[in-house]
């Protein structure tokens, strides 16, 4: 059986690039995931909003339905494989397929030197940063293989590559996201499945009262420690400003579309400067 694939024709000028594509977005109740849900829906996608928070997921779904977008909601803990499997089954039962999976769940739970982290907190951070991506990829691939088509977009972090301080367990987890991206890309390319990573740098976001992620040092945002940390973070960004969730969402929408063509196994640096020529 041949494993060669012809190029997919892209939509003219990239308009409505995701028309009628079934797109699962994890962590879509807040931040980058919420922005990606809006962007993908605006480009014609059918969105499955997945989040651990019922309130946050419902907010995104209500916003999209108010704009007459096609959207469904799934609430579950994606650190648990059974919930990831249920998410894929849910999407397939509603729409018959999954065209794109955006693995967005994650986020640093603490910011401090590694030697000050408690073992339980390290375990919590590792679980959050890598397991949802790993499990969701595992759950969706059998369906994409049957279709011989799929787009997987993993959300990484520039701190993995620029060695940003004070978040070593998070960096290790997100480093795993980069690794699974390249592994899946290599394995699945013969079957029409692309896997890429969008890797945000510092991102502007307001504290979300519906979703308390538990960043323990956030309460001391004006402390000398946090002010110095923010200064060091911005020192890694050539544009000298934080990125907007909507900017990351635009990159995600591209990677989820047929415009991605034969681009696979790539990490798109969104705001970091360590890899600039």
Description of the structure:
The chain has helices spanning 31-42, 54-66, 81-95, 119-147, 159-162, 168-188, 224-234, 245-256, and strands at residues 22-26, 46-51, 71-75, 100-103, 150-155, 193-200, 203-204, 243-244, 267-270. By secondary structure, it is α/β, with parallel strands linked by helices. It has one domain (15-203, 213-270): NAD(P)-binding Rossmann-like Domain (Rossmann fold, 3-Layer(aba) Sandwich), CATH 3.40.50.720. The longest helix has 29 residues, at 119-147.
In short:
This protein is α/β, with parallel strands linked by helices and 277 residues long. The protein is built from eight helices and nine strands.
H and E order = EHEHEHEHEHHEEHEHE
Percentage beta strand: 15-25%
Shape field:
globular
Which structural class is indicated by helix and strand composition? Answer: alpha/beta
CATH fold-level topology: Rossmann fold
Let me know the number of strands: 9
Unreliable spans are none
**Under the CATH scheme, which class?**
Alpha Beta
What's the CATH architecture?
3-Layer(aba) Sandwich
The spatial strand order of the largest sheet comes to 3-2-1-4-5-6-9
Distance between the termini: 41 Å
Number of domains: 1
Number of helices: 8
How would you characterize the largest beta sheet? Answer: 7 strands, parallel
């Amino acid at each position: 059986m041949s494993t060669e694939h012809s190029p997919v024709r892209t939509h003219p000028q990239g308009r409505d690039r995701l028309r009628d594509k079934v797109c699962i977005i994890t962590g879509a109740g807040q931040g980058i995931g919420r922005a990606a849900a809006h962007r993908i829906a605006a480009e014609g996608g059918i969105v499955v909003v997945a989040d651990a928070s019922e309130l946050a997921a419902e907010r995104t779904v209500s916003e999209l339905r108010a704009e007459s977008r096609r959207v469904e909601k799934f609430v579950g803990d994606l650190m648990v494989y059974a919930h990831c499997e249920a998410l894929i089954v849910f999407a397939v039962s509603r729409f018959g397929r999954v065209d794109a999976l955006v693995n967005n769940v994650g986020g640093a739970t603490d910011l401090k030197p590694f030697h000050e982290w408690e073992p339980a907190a390290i375990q919590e951070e590792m679980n959050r940063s890598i397991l949802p991506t790993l499990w969701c990829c595992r759950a969706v691939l059998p369906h994409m293989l049957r279709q011989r088509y799929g787009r997987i977009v993993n959300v990484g972090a520039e701190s993995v590559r620029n060695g940003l301080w004070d978040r070593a367990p998070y960096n290790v987890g997100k480093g795993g996201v980069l690794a699974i991206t390249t592994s899946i890309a290599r394995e699945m390319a013969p079957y029409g499945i692309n896997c890429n990573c969008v890797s945000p740098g510092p991102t502007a976001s307001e504290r979300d009262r519906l979703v308390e992620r538990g960043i323990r040092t956030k309460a001391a945002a004006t402390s000398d420690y946090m002010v110095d940390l923010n200064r060091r973070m911005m020192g890694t960004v050539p544009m000298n400003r934080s990125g907007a969730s909507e900017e990351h969402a635009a990159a995600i929408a591209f990677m989820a579309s047929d415009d991605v063509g034969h681009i696979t196994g790539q990490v798109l640096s969104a705001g970091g400067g360590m890899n600039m020529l």
